[in-house]
Amino acid sequence: MNVLVVNAGSSSLKYQLFDTSNDTVVAKGLCERIGLDGAITHKQLLAGKEYAAKVPMPTHTDAMKYVVEALLSAEHGCLKSMDEIHAVGHRIVHGGPWFSQSVLLTKEVFDTLDQRCRDLAPLHTGAHLQGIQGCLDVMPNTPQVLVFDTAFHQTMPEKAYMYGIPYQMYKDYAIRRYGAHGTSHRYVAGEMIKLLGGKAEGTKIITCHLGNGSSISAVKDGKVIDTSMGFTPLAGVIMGTRCGDMDPAIVPFIMNKEGFTPDQMNEFMNKKCGFLGISEVSSDCRDLEAAIADGNSQAKLAMDVLGYQIKKYIGSYTAAMGGLDAIVFTAGIGENTASLRAMALDDMEYFGIDYDKELNSKTFGRHGVTKLSTDKSRVQIYMIPTNEELMIARDTEALVNAK
Q1: Which residues sit opposite 76 in a β-bridge?
Q2: Does 19 participate in catalysis according to the annotation?
Q3: CB-based contacts of 400-403 (< 8 A; 24+ apart in sequence)
Q4: Cβ-contact 274, 283 below 8 angstroms
């Protein structure tokens, strides 16, 4: 089956065309600056052909039209007609309590996403809806599937997802911990389960999705029992520009001191904190490493804070699961930053954690699955490159075939 995977942002639209018979990416690309001047980059991977152009894209529908043109192009395309796209899969950031698994798009599903999920992810949901509508406009008869980043975390028990606020707030506004990056956590946890023998029951895995946005999950018996992100992706460990967990009293304190409105405070916590806020250098881990090499103490502090927080999550989730079989590092920082993995793993021998320091220092780039633990380690430690798009393609194929 040919499945087009779409990840729509507020002013961008990423896409990959999969042949699910062999999990091959046939083509991929990016439409950006939607609503402004617009641009598209497209790669036809089987023939190694590339295409780039600046084109007007007032809406996501216009962007989808250019995607279709690129896929059908005689020069750099890979399809003869749109009938060769058998289904479309969409990445959706937040499904609230209403979506605990991937679903086929219907009018009811579209309306629920529009009317009930917007408040939970206002920066993302509107863009998702535009991307879905764009696909409907150019491929009205092609089945579409929505894959939710929050769905994998819906197995958390109440004691893990409830906050210490009046229960009525939960009933009225659905305020609870939802988590994020669920599609990534599901993929790498599944790959780790294969490495542990293929049977989910009895396994205890901590998955560390570390990038510009970072989250850590405890996966027991193949199901999430806890995760670091919360009601929104702002919670948990510090990130590129996000503050992560902090005393909630800090929020009104800063608002009063700085004269921030609620919206300004929200933007401050999401865009001015984390690596950027502590280091005063950059939100990019690579820039921090370069600054650390030059002796920048604040850059080192920012990295130290994240490394320490990851270590604490490993300890707490090991306690929550009653043991630990494996730790997985994934995403941009998790796959590429050896120093941060070392911070999280050093001095953890009493947990049964022992890793190959020399091998870890050489593991840069997406080299594929890499075992970092030593033979004497009771806990398996792996770097597993994530593949959220493949999970979306597989879910899409399964649901469309089931229908």
Answers
A1: none
A2: no
A3: 400/1, 400/86, 400/87, 400/104, 400/143, 400/145, 401/1, 403/104, 403/143
A4: yes
Residue 15's identity, in one-letter code, is Y
Which residues have C-beta within 8 Å of that of residue 254, sequence separation ≥ 6?
260, 265, 268
- Alpha carbon distance 127, 118 (integer Å): 10
Distances (CA, A) of 91 to 39, 60, 210, 265: 21, 15, 19, 28
List the catalytic residue out of 37, 62, 137, 149: 149
Cα–Cα distance list, 99 to 177, 243, 262 (Å): 14, 27, 28
pLDDT in tens, the chain (403 residues): 999 999 887 677 889 999 999 989 998 898 888 887 788 888 877 778 888 888 888 888 888 888 888 888 888 888 888 888 999 999 998 999 999 899 999 999 999 999 998 888 777 888 889 889 888 888 899 999 999 999 999 999 999 999 999 999 999 999 999 999 999 999 999 999 999 999 999 999 999 999 888 999 999 999 999 999 999 889 999 999 999 999 999 999 999 999 999 999 999 998 899 999 999 999 888 899 999 999 999 999 999 999 999 999 999 999 999 999 999 999 989 998 999 999 999 999 999 999 999 999 876 555 689 999 999 999 999 999 999 999 999 999 999 999 8
Q: What pLDDT, on the 0 to 100 scale, is given for residue 50?
A: 85
Chain centroid, CA 382 distance in Å: 18
- Please give the Cα distance from 124 to 359 (Å, whole number): 38
| Cα distance between residue 63 and residue 39, in whole Å | 9
* Cα–Cα distance measured from residue 90 to residue 106, given in angstroms and rounded to the nearest whole number: 13
State the maximum Cα–Cα separation within the chain, in Å, rounded to a whole number.
Answer: 61
Which residues neighbour 217 within 8 Å (Cβ) at sequence distance 6 or greater? 153, 179, 185, 189, 206, 207, 209, 224, 226, 227, 228, 317
